Amino acid sequence: MKRVAILTSGGDSPGMNAAIAGAVAAANSRGIEIIGIRNGYDGLLDEQFLPLSLGRVKGINSTGGTILGTSRSERFMMPEWRKRIPDILFSAGIDGLVVIGGNGSLRGAMELESMGIRTVGIPGTIDNDLGGTDFTLGFMTAVETAVKAVRRLTDVALSERGIFIVEVMGRNSGYIALFVAMATAADLVNVPERQMTNEEIAEKLRNVKDSAVVVWAEGCGDPGQLADLLKPAVKVPVAVARIGYLQRGGVPSTLDSFLGFTLGATALSTLAAGQHGVMIGIKSLEPVEVPYREAVRPNPLPGFLQENLLPLLDVR
Ligand code: F6P
Predict the structure, then answer these.
(1) From residue 93, how far is each of 3, 44, 87, 88, 235 by CA, in Å?
(2) Nearest residue CA, atom 13 of ligand 1?
(3) pTM (global) more than 0.85
(4) Ligand 1 centroid to 101 CA: how many Å?
(5) Which of 15, 105, 111, 214 is spaced 20 to 30 Å from 186 by Cα?
(6) In the prediction, which pLDDT does 298 show?
(7) Whose CA is nearest to atom 2 of ligand 1?
């Protein structure tokens, strides 16, 4: 293997840059050339190549976002565009591709594998919704960001004597919501894996006389509907807050920088060893090869969290 490429795809997440740095360091130590592809699969279709060197990635372990840029490529979804990719890579002399991204991006890598392209994936998403890995890159940073926001909103709720419903990201997964709710001692948490109806939540909050904070996973739908139901039923003000894209930015946590560098370097050495068609996950701090099929399976909150911990968060 002489020349490999690397791209970031889908929603950006803190730790992607560390993964790029890890891959560049591992490529360099093996004398393999590494080319960055700008803007995800869109950039691959447009041949937006950026040669990477140790100098180019210096210091990026601790920066948020992705220096390569990213996209949710609509063209890549179309077979007539996708079929151009083997020729694009062949003409550029690229023997293997590292794809950093979430579920949709790794499904894309799986498609490329079926077209004969050697790929290795890295779980890059704040949602922590991929199989075969303890963590995805960016999850812990997003949790820390949301925790800070919820702590501030808790101050406001306590002072104003009101109910705050705080929506966090996570797509269809309740991981971010549960971690945030635990860390902030929220009064309630609603997650898609164990979703309460608005009526059930309203019943629990009916007698709140001072304040309450509800952490709401976006996968549970529109929190505004709960607010509308609550407003006439309770005696305190009700507000909805959405943390939104703040959760995707910022300096990666130490864990995300560490994981990013480790997974990036391991993805490169996996490709160099002739292995492909897998995502590199992390289990008990060991990098592991996870077949794409397992990685893209839904990864709901584990049973013990749902059954033993979730019910402990309740209005006091
Ligand atoms: O997958 C990461 C994520 O931030 C989800 O938590 C969220 O549902 C989605 O991306 C938002 O996507 P977009 O950037 O397309 O608005």
Answers:
(1) 7, 14, 10, 9, 68
(2) 11
(3) yes
(4) 12
(5) 15
(6) 87
(7) 11
Query: Does the beta carbon of 102 lie inside 6 Å of ligand 1?
Result: yes
Cβ of residue 248 lying under 6 Å from some atom of ligand 1: yes
d(CA 221, CA 226): 10
Spell out the domains of the chain, with CATH numbers in brackets: 3-138+252-301 (3.40.50.450), 139-248 (3.40.50.460)
The pLDDT tens digits of the residues spanning 80-103 come to: 999 999 999 999 999 999 999 999
187 is catalytic: no
Q: What is the pLDDT of residue 313?
A: 86
* Residue of 85 and 304 predicted with greater confidence: 85
pLDDT at residue number 316: 66
How would you class 284 by CB atoms within 10 Å of its CB: exposed for 0-12, middle for 13-18, buried for 19 or more?
Answer: exposed
Cα of 11 to ligand 1 centre, how many Å? 6
Q: Could you report the per-residue pLDDT of 170-183, keeping only the tens digit for each? A: 999 999 999 999 99
Is the distance from the beta carbon of residue 40 to the nearest atom of ligand 1 less than 6 Å?
Answer: no
Cβ–ligand 1 contact at 170 (below 6 Å): yes
Choice among 42, 46, 95, 127 that is catalytic = 127
